[in-house]
Amino acid sequence: MKTLIFRIIPICLLIALAFTGCASRGSEFLGSWVNTQNPKDTFVVTRNGDTYLIVAQGQKPGVGAIYKDGSLEVKGVLLSADLTYVKRTDTIIAPGFWGQAEYKRQK
């Protein structure tokens, strides 16, 4: 019985370590998001290999983004923008026309 326990404990630790290591960075951004001030302003974040694809409502081509320093960095031709995930409120903060825009996860 003792040897069985000594075999099971390392296996359980390896499985726990494997599941912890499999959690990918940036997965908190995945899903559908809606602007808290304007419900018509929505977008979807999906994984695209090592990068992310952001598709706004009603638009076919998406915008590419990379996970960098805890946020999604969207690089455009003229400027770049960072989408920041706020864990406490389960929201994304993004730059807007008149300051910052807040997006909540659509359920």
Task: Summarize, please.
The protein has 107 residues and is an alpha+beta fold. 20% of the residues lie in helices and 46% in strands.
Describe this structure in words.
The protein has a single domain, classed as Lipocalin, CATH 2.40.128. It is 20% helix and 46% strand. It is built from one helix and eight strands, in the order αββββββββ. It has one helix spanning 2-22, and strands spanning 31-35, 42-48, 51-56, 63-68, 71-75, 80-86, 91-96, 99-105. It has an eight-stranded antiparallel barrel with strand order 1-2-3-4-5-6-7-8.
Key features of this structure:
about 110 residues; alpha+beta; Lipocalin; eight-stranded antiparallel beta barrel; 1 helix
* Helix percentage: 10-25%
Count of DSSP H/I helices: 1
Strand order within the widest beta sheet: 1-2-3-4-5-6-7-8
Give the C-level CATH assignment. Mainly Beta
β-strand percent reads over 45%
Order of helices and strands: HEEEEEEEE
CATH topology: Lipocalin
Name the average pLDDT. 80
Round the Cα radius of gyration to an integer and report it: 19 Å
Structural class: alpha+beta
Largest sheet, strands/sense/barrel: 8 strands, antiparallel, barrel
Question: How many domains make up the coordinates?
Answer: 1
Q: Please report the total strand number as a whole number.
A: 8
CATH architecture: Beta Barrel
Distance between the termini: 48 Å
In the predicted model, the low-confidence regions spanning at least 5 consecutive residues are: none
Overall geometry comes to: globular
